[in-house]
Amino acid sequence: MSKELAVVLLSGGLDSCVTAAVAAQSCDLALLHLSYGQRTEAREVRSFKAIADHYDVSKARRLCVEARFLERVGGSALTNSAIAVPEANLDSPSIPITYVPFRNAHLISLGVSWAEVLSADAVYIGVVEEDSSGYPDCREDFCRAFEKAIDLGTRPETRIRLETPLIHKSKADIVSLGVSLQAPLDLTWSCYSDNDRPCGRCESCSLRARAFGQAGVQDPILS
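^ thats the sequence. predicted structure below, dont judge the formating
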């Protein structure tokens, strides 16, 4: 039997890389990357291309899309250079200023559009609800609601699942899963602010450092 085809939304970060590794266990991959004016855009594209090469994904099944309107909309430290990227506060219950308003809705929509063109069976996204920054568009309720929109907004014969394999995992579990699947974690990039070496201070760097520490694994990008 032929494998299913999955569109994986691949930022180049830890979670999206492990999501690609999960999808690769049972699916052929098509990889989509979104550039939206984020501070580390160039570095993320590098990671996307390197991970795509690792999984030997053909050029025809790689898609890099620009969404500059998110930069123009603003409201996030990731897209507005006038807003400083804050140092991590992992105990804060509030949604951090690094949240890009409704970004994942745009990202999933693009993935579904391409999946319908490719006759793909699923769109995979590496959202994490339980051990992350608390972004509202990373919640399971949001993803399940969006799955209903996919059913209503595509051709009657189209059946596209929205897969969220990491949504209830801890970051440490994600690291361990990535190691077990031999995901290329050394190719990933998580830092919100710097392109050359991780700043070690932003929320994403701190979540990543804590996850590798709890998993008892050396972060390969720091070695």
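Helices lie at 14-24, 41-54, 68-73, 103-118, 140-153, 171-180, 203-215.
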